[in-house]
Specification:
By secondary structure, this protein is of the alpha+beta class. The protein has 1 helix and 2 strands, in the order E-E-H. Strands 1-2 form a two-stranded antiparallel sheet. Strand 1 and strand 2 form a beta hairpin. The longest helix has 22 residues.
Length: about 60
């Protein structure tokens, strides 16, 4: 990819002032799914949930 090229992502208007949808495929999924969250936001949310679960497991003993 040269410096003049750039990646473009398809955004689909969701209407009523909402963000557009992106086609995102997460690990473990078979196909892309339309989501309004970015893959980075989803990854952060999953990482936080994983840490919370680990903390709960440690507190239980």
């Amino acid at each position: 990819m040269t410096s003049s090229e750039r990646r473009e992502y398809e955004l689909r208007p969701a209407g009523a002032g909402r963000k557009g949808l992106r086609s995102i495929k997460l690990p473990g999924e078979r196909r892309h799914v339309d989501r309004s969250e970015s893959a980075t936001d989803i990854a952060k949310r999953l990482a936080i949930a994983k840490r919370e679960k680990q903390l709960k497991d440690r507190l239980r003993g």
